[in-house]
TrEMBL record:
Keyword Ion transport included in the entry's annotation: yes
Membrane topology: Peripheral membrane protein
GO molecular function: proton-transporting ATPase activity, rotational mechanism
Function in brief: Subunit of the V1 complex of vacuolar(H+)-ATPase (V-ATPase), a multisubunit enzyme composed of a peripheral complex (V1) that hydrolyzes ATP and a membrane integral complex (V0) that translocates protons. V-ATPase is responsible for acidifying and maintaining the pH of intracellular compartments and in some cell types, is targeted to the plasma membrane, where it is responsible for acidifying the extracellular environment.
SUPFAM superfamilies membership: AtpF-like
UniProt-listed Pfam families: ATP-synt_F
Family statement drawn from the similarity comment of this UniProt entry: Belongs to the V-ATPase F subunit family.
Location relative to the cell: Cytoplasmic vesicle, Secretory vesicle, Synaptic vesicle membrane
Record protein name field: V-type proton ATPase subunit F
GO CC annotation: membrane; proton-transporting V-type ATPase, V1 domain; synaptic vesicle membrane
Listed InterPro entries: ATPase_V1-cplx_f_g_su, ATPase_V1-cplx_fsu_euk, ATPase_V1_fsu_sf
Native species: Pan troglodytes (Chimpanzee)
PANTHER family in alphabetical order: V-TYPE PROTON ATPASE SUBUNIT F, VACUOLAR ATP SYNTHASE SUBUNIT F
Alphabetically ordered keywords of this record: Hydrogen ion transport, Ion transport, Transport
Length: 119
């Protein structure tokens, strides 16, 4: 049985969102809400957090891609998300390289396994 397809939601800088839109991932749901947010200098933390929560609550979202430096701004919201779907992935941007020590999902995953589990 084929399930409903899931979207990738994006909370990123302008250049990255533009690239994703050119790759045809941009969509509007039945309420005309997009599956992306371009974060610019004047974007408030409340706007980012509200958009993140909207993406979590949409039944058509499978993955949320968020720049790591943006994720740090709304870390408390990311920490409350305990489900595997939608999956939240923190990724780098041009100006902010990826730092695995700051990745909340990776930190949580490391706590789930011991060295013996991996042998």
């Amino acid at each position: 049985m084929v399930g409903r397809r899931k979207l990738i939601a994006v909370i990123r800088d302008k250049d990255t969102v533009t690239g994703f839109l050119l790759g045809s991932i941009g969509e509007l749901n039945k309420n005309c809400h997009p599956n992306f947010l371009v974060v610019e200098k004047d974007t408030t933390i409340n706007e980012i957090e509200d958009t993140f929560r909207q993406f979590l609550n949409r039944d058509d979202t499978g993955i949320i891609l968020i720049n790591q430096y943006i994720a740090e701004m709304v870390q408390h919201a990311l920490d409350t998300h305990q489900h595997s779907i939608p999956t939240v992935l923190e990724i780098p941007s041009k100006e902010h390289p990826y730092e695995d020590a700051k990745d909340s999902i990776l930190r949580r995953a490391r706590g789930m396994f011991t060295a013996e589990d991996l042998c």
